[in-house]
Write a structure and sequence with these properties.
The chain is of the alpha+beta class. The protein contains two helices and four strands; from the N terminus they run βββααβ. The radius of gyration is 11 Å and the shape is globular. The two termini are 15 Å apart.
């Protein structure tokens, strides 16, 4: 479950913080995709749909406890 998201437009980097505290960075995420993501009613569904895009890569930054 997605807790929150942060976006760095200059790096095309989306950081997703999951409910358990895990933090994963996804790139490349263009500004248009981010705009669509935050307009979606269900943030978790929108994030999961976006990260399944073939060229988007996720990197675990921090794991929850």
């Amino acid at each position: 479950h997605v807790s929150s998201v942060k976006y760095n437009e200059s790096k095309n980097l989306l950081t997703v913080i999951y409910a358990g505290g895990s933090e994963v960075e996804y790139s490349p995420v263009n500004p248009e995709n981010y705009t669509e993501l935050i307009k979606d009613q269900c943030l978790s569904t929108a994030v999961h749909k976006m990260v399944r895009t073939p060229n988007v890569v996720g990197t675990v930054k921090q794991r929850g406890h």
